Amino acid sequence: MQTLRRQKSTCRGDSSNCVETATTPAAVHVRDSKDVSGPRLALSHATWVAFIAYADKLGDSELGS
Predict the structure, then answer these.
(1) Which of 35, 45, 48, 63 is deepest in the core (most CB within 10 A)?
(2) Model-level pTM?
(3) Is there a contact between 45 and 28 (Cβ–Cβ < 8 Å)?
(4) In terms of pLDDT, which residue wins out, 65 or 63?
(5) Tell me, what's the pLDDT at 45?
């Protein structure tokens, strides 16, 4: 199994709702920083870019921040 080098997102507020990401040539891996043993996602780079664009378009108010 490949060891991933993860980065924690920049959080706001109490820092309790953060994600960690790790990028490989094939995918962007995402997990909850509070539950590192919990569920994980592996997204294609195109899907990750589309998600970030969508989240940016919605803004904080619609994402619950």
Answers:
(1) 48
(2) 0.72
(3) yes
(4) 63
(5) 97
In single-letter form, the type of residue at position 21 comes to: T
pLDDT of 27 reads: 95
Mean pLDDT of 20-46: 91
Tokens matching residue 31: 């997990």
The residue type of 12 is: R
Distance set, CA 40 to CA 14, 22, 45, 65 (Å): 22, 11, 15, 21
- Joined together, the tokens standing for residue 21 give 């990401």
Question: DSSP readout, 26-63?
Answer: S-EEEEETT-TTS-EEEE-HHHHHHHHHHHHHH-HHHH
